[in-house]
Predict the structure.
Amino acid sequence: MTFPSGAITGDATVTAVRPHPDGAVVVLDTTPFHPVDHTWPDQPGDTGTIISAGEEVRVIDTMMAATENGTDLLIGADIPVKRGTDGWTWLVAHVIGAGSSLAEGSAVHALVDAGRRLDLSRGHTACHLASLALDAALADLWHKEVRPDPLGNPDFEGRANESSFIHANGSVDRYRLGKSLRKAGFDSETLAATLAEREQRANVQLAAWVAAGSASRIETAGPGITDMRTWHCTLPEGEAAFPCGGTHVASLADFRSITVQLAQPDAQTLVMTTTATAV
């Protein structure tokens, strides 16, 4: 995989072609395409084109794939084990339509949709920054000591996040405000009474981080799709780092603004909608 460095193109060789309900899936020996993770599907897979001998084949989705025996290739939700499970080989499956002449051994040029990748990367970076800003905005609502986030605030994100979805230039995160969170020391009643104030605090913090224009990067433990990847951003308050399998912008100078809206559709749920605006 080469996408952690920001790559959107690359030469490769087809190592497998298998049937798929949408047509076929193609596996390459190296790829710039980012796949959606079957265990935490927050960022959608890349789309783009695979070019071989003048034929342009549209990649309509990119997914995780795995095989235990080297023959049966399981895709996405059909994978019965977690990523990195011993005895399994992990791959990236490029979903294409029917009728392609791509075959094992074909030399190809892979090309990711650059605009869509950038929009998703912007959304993913904004999502991480928003979670840190939310932790800071809610820090005084904890009445017991809890594990800190990368910037030293109580880790509300890590304790309460139920789901996260990255989209172009933004994200939607849902948090569970249940009995276990209250037992851990979180004051959900005061949160409900001061929601607008918390939202404002988070947005003030996000504006300051955008103004700082810090560098953002992915560090990898190796070139394989299951090797650990970590997002880093050096903010004025310190180094923020999260394990992260997605893609990110290279600098916060890429943003004109990042803002969040907080809502409570019911007493047990907090929803944070993050919106990023490009320069």
